[in-house]
Every structure is written in structure tokens, then in C-alpha cells.
Amino acid sequence: MSTISSDEVARVAALARIALTDEEIDRLAGELDVIAGAVARVNEVATPDVPATSHPIPLTNVWREDEVVETLDVDAVMAAAPEASDGMFAVPQILGEDA
Amino acid sequence: MSDLTRRTAAELAELLRSREVSSVEVTQAHLDRMAAVEGAVGAFLHTNTEEALAAAAEVDARRSAGEDLPELAGVPIAVKDVVVTKGQVTTAASKILEGWVPPYDATLVRKLREAGLPILGKTNMDEFAMGSSTEHSAFGPTRNPWDLERIPGGSGGGSAAAVAAFEAPLAIGTDTGGSIRQPAAVTGTVGAKPTYGGVSRYGLIAMASSLDQAGPVSRTVLDSALLHEVIGGHDPLDSTSLTDPVGGLAEAARSRDLAGVRVGIVSELGGEGYQPGVRASFEHAVELLRSAGAEIVEVSCPSFDYALAAYYLIMPAEASSNLAKFDGMRFGLRVEPESGPVTAETVMAATRGAGFGDEVKRRIILGTHALSAGYYDAYYGSAQKVRTLIQRDFAAAFADADVLVSPTSPTTAFRFGEKLDDPLAMYLNDIATIPANLAGVPGLSLPSGLSDDGLPVGFQILAPAREDARMYRVGGVLERLLTAEWGGPLLDRAPELEVSSR
Which of A44, B218, B363, B410 has a beta carbon 3.0–4.6 Å from B224's, enabling a disulfide? Predict the structure, then answer.
């Protein structure tokens, strides 16, 4: 039984911000189906009485003193950016996209 | 002086300490070996010749000045390309990071530099550590030194192959579902996944944060223990980093007997699907442990049968979240859409569509699907419950046994392309290694011999969390017994690589 359709792959790809070709969408739908079938097994033992564990070790909030420390070198960071201007990241248009 | 590249890290450290050789000589010997065999093996994505030699010269100068240096000072090392290195290209084997030069060092890299280990270069891997064969690297595969037509394991195939091909005495790997241990198994090397949090993850390009763990790759158990001591320890920059002290690992690896040690055979890890030669090698190793004084007990971990399924929900879910940072805005690749408006959103989609390989896209899509409305509880939430059951299984098993053992991988190295079209078959390679990642316990793989096909088999030792020393103790004793049987290291039986003229 198919659990991940091409439509679902296309929807999820849009959520994940990945441009896929139609061919990629169809191929992924077929491949993910196999995995989705396998993971259905999980529900065989994941009964309501079993608590979920998100992490191998118990997590606690970690605090530190509010001290000034060395930061990354701005020039080195900007040198690795796709586009930079005046010590800032230059990005494509974000606001007013519908304008 | 015999070929320095055949020496173990511990042997090199001794030669350096006694000043019989210099770090420049040792480092140059490995650079020469890299130049000679890289054309055949392809273990490295980037090499750092000048930086490595400069680091080596600095160590030599400090030693000459009478400075008391760390044990491995001067011993060169290779680092998996998923670990960021300041000023040196780091790509995680992905086109989306091609040419990226990080402005900072991972904590473990800082520790390597402080301990005086020259970094030879960055090793090949499956893109973003997603794979079990190093066939998913965007820059081409690495080949197994035992048989160049076969995979070197994954995702850390480059690190394992570099060590197996004598290009580096030591390497760093990362292990999310077995990516240190499985490549070690199929290349006849040693690989250790420390307890989760035992080595800082700061500066590792994350795949699945609750599973990822960096660790050593080497040719002997002692070498892994020595390197583990260098890179381990608390790091304030990683909030999941354990505060426990790291020590006693090398001492444990030097142990000579196993009197009173209870070794548990996990009945679920060794049945159907395990190559007969793999099983035979495993059973022989267990007999050797018994002869060394260990008590062998059978343990059952029934939830391990569900580990793979749980892993393939948790891993892509966390990966899809972690890889959201690759948006074409602050670093790496930026691709504009071929048509339509050029906005942040369309640029991000075009960049990720062009920059990610097929396996990365597959996992992000699956992870996003698993986390999306309506699926979260059934998929991700249920997988987290299996994680609880696996932790309970481990707790019960470790009540009866001090360590647990199994074959590391169900089969020896397979041929290129054999499993590329079948993700599930590929994922099954990690069936014996994944439970340790879900529970955060440490695991070690060392070679136990050759299978019926003449290829190396890995023997896995698992210990309770924070008890990494136990696996080094059992591994050290087993290695000594096996090496005595073989009359030398297993890697001596690997075919000679054709050396290219330079």
C-alpha cells in the first residue's frame, strides 16, 4: 500500500524548500514508500504505556556566566558568504515579494 | 628505519619521544604514501601538505627545546570532512559546501592541534554522513584497500581507508548509526564510538544531533584509546557534553587478562542475514575471549529488532531540521532559480535542489514528512518510545554482562553499486551498530579475521554509558590473542596497492 504519494513528496519538498524535478518526485515517492512500510513496524511496540525518550542522556538546561568572549572574525565569516556587503550578508529580496 | 607508515601511532609516539625520528619525517612519510596511493584509494577530499609539515616542524622545535609534550605529539592524523577545520576547506562531501573555508575549529580539532597532531587532510565520506558505503559523496567514492572494486564502508569510508592504506596512522570519524564502526569492520581497522557526549560535537556538521558522536579510527585498540583520551572531555560549547573525566582508556587497552569479565552475546545480533564467514569469525573470537578467562553469557535484547525502524524515523527527522541551515544565504552555494522571481525562498529552494545529492534529499523529504502535521505522533513520537525500550534492553543485558558483543556488520564489504538502488538493503548494514546510538552507549569495532571471501570481519564490543574503558580492555586482550594467531597485524594480509609514479 502506498503511503507516500508523489503529491505528498511535492508538498513536503515545498515545505523543506528543495526544488525537485518531476522525475525526482516520482522516484522519491517510490523509494520512500519502502521506508515508510518498514517504519510502520515501530507502532507494533510503541504502546501508550511506554514513555518516549528524546535523547540518550537526560537533558538539563546549561547556564554560564555572562562573560564577553572572543567572537568569530567578521572578515573570515564574510569571506565564506555567497555575497556580502559592508560586513553584512547580502541576501535576495525577502520583503514585499508579492509586490 | 623501516617504513614509518606501517607503524602504529603508539610506536610512532615512542620513536618521536626518544627522538629517533622527527615529526617532519613521520608526516612526510605519510604525505609520500598519500601521493603514491591516493590515485587508487581516494580516501581524501583535501590535503593539507604545507600546514601538516608546518605543524610537524613546530612539534619538533618544541621537543628540541625540551618541552614536555602530550603523548601523541607529532603523530599525524586525518580528519573526516564533516568536522570543521579553521582555514581548511570543509565540505561534508557536499556540493552545497564546495570550497567552504570555516572561520573556526571544531573543539576536537582544537584539541588535536593543542596536542600536536599534524592534520594531513580531510577524508571522504557519504554526503553529510548519510550512507553506509561512501558512494554518496558528491566528489566520488573511496575504494576499499582490500579490494578496489568494493566499498570501504560508510559514512566514514575515507577515514577507514586512509588508515587501512597506511596513509594515516590515525583518523577521526563520526558515528550516527555506525559510521565509525562499520567502515572499520570492512577495512580491517579499529573504530570506536565513545559514550554519547564523551567527545564534544561542537564544530561537527550535524546530521542527527541525538545520535551523532565523533570518535577515533586506528589500526590498533591502544591507538584508538590514546586518541580518545586526546579528543574526549567536557566542552562548555556543547551543552550535551558530559562532565565526566576522560582517562584510563589506554591503560585499559593494555590489559592482559579478562578474569571475571562477563561477555554477553546478543542473540538478536547474529542470526539471519549474517554472512556465514562473518559468523564463523565472530564465534572464533568469542572462544578466544573464553580462553582469556571471560565468562560467556547469552543475553536477549528483543527491542533491537525495532531499532532500525526507529532509527530511520529519528535520524531523518533530526537531519531535516539540522540541514535547514543550508539556505544559500550565509555560507556555501547560492543558486538562483532559472525562471520566476528571485526571492529568498526561491533561491533557497533552487540552492538546495542543486546542492544536495539524492540521498540527502531522500532523508530530508522523509524527515520533513515524519515531522509534519498528522504524522509526528505516529512516526517520530513512536520511534522515541522504541528508544526507551532499547535503553531498557541494554540496562537488563548489562545487569547480566559487563560488555555485549556481536559482529559489527552482517556482511563483508560489498561491491560498488550493489545496494545503491535499494535504500533498505543499504540501511541493513547498520543493523548491529544502530542500537548503541539510540541508547548512547559506547561501541568498539576491531578486526576478528577474514571471512570466507578473504575480506575483513569486524567484532563489536558494547559497554554501558560512561564505561568506555571496558570495551578497550576486552578489545585489547582480544586483539593481542588474534594478532598472535595471525603472526602479525591483519592488515599485513591486504594486497599491496599499486603505487603510482609521482
Answer: B218
